[in-house]
Amino acid sequence: MKDDVIGTKLAGVAEAPPTVTARRKRGRVPAIYFSIGLLLLLVLVFSLGNQNFLSLYNLNTIASYSAILLMVALGQMNTILIGGIDLSVGGLMSFVSVVFITLTKIVGLWAFPVCIAIALLVGLVNGIVLTRIKIPSFIATLGTGGILTSLALLISPLPVDLPSGSYGLLDTVNGAWLGIPNLLLLTIAGFAFFLLILRYTATGRRIYYTGSNIKMSWMSGVDISRTRNLAFALSGLGAGIAAIMLSSTQYGGDPTSGNVFILQSIAAVVVGGTALTGGTGGPINTLIGALILGVMENGMNVVGVDAYFQQSILGLVIVISVALTFDRSKTAVVK
Known about the structure:
Layout: H1 2-9, H2 22-27, H3 31-49, H4 56-81, H5 89-107, H6 111-132, H7 137-155, E1 160-161, H8 171-174, E2 176-177, E3 180-181, H9 182-200, H10 202-212, H11 214-219, H12 224-250, E4 252-253, H13 261-271, H14 283-302, H15 307-325
Antiparallel strand pairs: 1-4, 2-3
Helix pairs in contact: 3-14, 4-9, 4-12, 4-13, 4-14, 5-6, 5-7, 5-12, 6-7, 6-12, 9-10, 10-12, 13-14
């Protein structure tokens, strides 16, 4: 009953910020349409640039990279939807990567639930630092990310490999079911989980409400601290699952493997059309964003774009995406 009351009070919060006129709102094209158009354009350009781009092997390479990126981006999406950001995902992935392989040698399959629990706990700690100590999410997660990276290096300064005799323990990720790779099935399950949470639960509604208008949400009875804690816990969950997937596909852990995913996860969320100001976007946007980055990462290598120039192109795409989705009327509440 309480959720219904909250939903009634905040029904219009995510739909129209006070400073946006009805005419401007009707004339605005949803950002996801730009993202889908960009994805199709990239596929067309790269396929014309190299006929091997659409080969089965190359598409599988894109899918594998996009699957791992999507999982960490789906977690990151929750913090961005509430108007925050999580810079600790890279350190968390590195830490879980090393711990997962180390524990797999000792406790076998129990490493899976233990590492997921660790990831959830780290995400919750990030939320508590934000809500209780009142440190902005940018600073709080930058600090915890550095701590986790340091811990990963203390556990194993060098990459740690899993003995070949234990490869079977990773079939949960590397195996296949009815001819479908488990990596793909796990990604679909993870996507469905986050979609279910955000679209069909009270927690998801509160995340959108908080990101849309934090003051109005508080006045309507939403527990802001609890909502933020849950959002960061979900971010930790996504990063933890992504780390397990990455370590399993590489049959080893690396104390620096997560570094690349800090900006990549944010870029996937933003490029997909989820606004950095919060309250707008969702899992489908993030899926499109992860595919865009996967196609760009692979396509630029396939057609021979200079490695130093690739970052310039990616940066340009991110700037344009933010310009299309950024709600300037809410700048004051961005963390």
